[in-house]
Amino acid sequence: GARLARRGGKMASTAAGKQRIPKVAKVKNKAPAEVQITAEQLLREAKERELELLPPPPQQKITDVEELNDYKLRKRKTFEDNIRKNRTVISNWIKYAQWEESLKEIQRARSIYERALDVDYRNVTLWLKYAEMEMKNRQVNHARNIWDRAITTLPRVNQFWYKYTYMEEMLGNVAGSRQVFERWMEWQPEEQAWHSYINFELRYKEVDRARTIYERYILFTLLVIVHPDVKNWIKYARFEEKHSYFAHARKVYERAVEFFGEEHMDEHLYVAFAKFEENQKEFERVRVIYKYALDRIPKQDAQNLFKNYTIFEKKFGDRRGIEDIIVSKRRFQYEEEVKANPHNYDAWFDYLRLVESDADAETVREVYERAIANVPPIQEKRHWKRYIYLWINYALYEELEAKAKRTRQVYQACIELIPHKKFTFAKIWLLYAQFEIRQKNLPLARRALGTSIGKCPKNKLFKGYIELELQLREFDRCRKLYEKFLEFAPENCTSWIKFAELETILGDIDRARAIYELAIGQPRLDMPEVLWKSYIDFEIEQEEYEKTRNLYRRLLQRTQHVKVWISFAQFELSAGREQNLSRCRQIYEEANKAMRNCEEKEERVMLLESWRSFEEEFGTDTTKERIDKLMPEKIKKRRKLQAEDGSDAGWEEYYDYIFPEDTANQPNLKLLAMAKLWKKQQQESEAAEMDPDKDIDESQS
Question: Model's pTM, two decimal places?
């Protein structure tokens, strides 16, 4: 029975357990809710609930000593428990000590601080709070004891020294404060500590003591090299100057200059030294200091020095001194530019222009030599175009300022440097030849130009040489040069024309005509139209009209250009004979027939307009009527455009000309006339439809 009862109890308990397990509800609708709650909203609500005002804890009123002792016991137990949990958290110790201090339990607070120092004696805040507590409660000896222990334990914490000296000074214990400073200086502290000691002595008018401290400070700089800085020397000198010890101040500056030497020169030291001398009205000493520094300090480190020197010269110097400093400053800028990029020839030009205006010949020559030493690295003419002007300016400077011998050497060195097999500069050869002529050395000039034509013939060289011989009236040499020139460049029409003009001037008409004949017989010409025009003008000037006509006929065999026909007609008009009008009209007739098959209709129109203007001036009514019938009809047409890839690019409107005398175009003219008539009829019918009353009135009438 007992077993059944136990078994029944187990079954009942398992059934009850099964009933207590909650079933997970199946979510039938898995669509999102209409109102969504974001994470930001959840966080904001949580924050708002944290900020809800809680009721303040009930105030406990202590009425007797027992309750107070009980409160102290509970509070101390709390603090001790916090310390026992983690002894290294110094904030717990400080809170504990400050609480005891607030109860005026100084001895207990002192005990807590001592226990904390046993845990972490390197904590600066702990020492400061401990000493501040003693000073706040006027326990001076205890405070001194704590500061002594602090600076002995942690001598590199400057805050302890500052607090200690300040406390002694506030107590009026100047000797004690000085003693603390002396102990501090034995540790060779940073710069500010020395200046604090100096300022302390100056507050009590102890200038000699302050000077002694400065000397010790500088001695550390010299021997220990703890503070090898210019500003420390400057401060020492200004200290002497402030207290009117000017000789001492000058001596300090001189010692500083000697100490730093030329290897570690600093512009700030020399600027301060110069300003000191300027205040003492020693202007010559100031100028010497600035020039000494500018000659030795690298230019990039002397910007402030330049600026102050310029200001000084503007205030106390003469015009020459001001110009010197400005020139030196600009020279420094140009030096920096050419140092950064030696192939910046524009910078060299500016530099040389500056040097030429102010420096002596040797300095200018030295800068020129430095400039021309920067030969372009690539032998391509475009890289040499700016560089070659350095040589030209050098030669001109030597000729104008120095002797001619050096000028000749400059030109010869430049000619040897240029790679004539790849390119040359005709300007150099011509300038050299002109220089030799100015020196009355004609053979050398001819030799130079002959060498240039032999090494590297160029059109400009031939033209320059020929012009030289023309000025010297050496016409036979000019003929030979023209022959060489035309052998070198037979396609140059200008040379043929100039050669023929020379023979014309010399009166040798047959040679000039032969030159023109040779010229027009060349297979290649750069400007044939100019050559033919010159030949025709030559024959007209000689009044050889038949030869001129023959020239026009020969030219028309080569080209049927409309301008040739018009020029031919105008020649016949101005030929000065009785048959000139008929000849001119005949030329126009021939031109019109020849240009019927011309694709360029604008040229044919140009011819007809020229013909019409001729007839209007010289023709009869019959000839005028005839030319009017020949004038074309101007119509507007459209044509399809194609892009480069072959696709359609739209339509384009253009003007076309229909000539009446072209029989092939007669149907087009008839069609055009019919189209105009149809358009006129259409306009009349539209006008009638717009005004029906007018039609009724007309029918009634």
Answer: 0.46
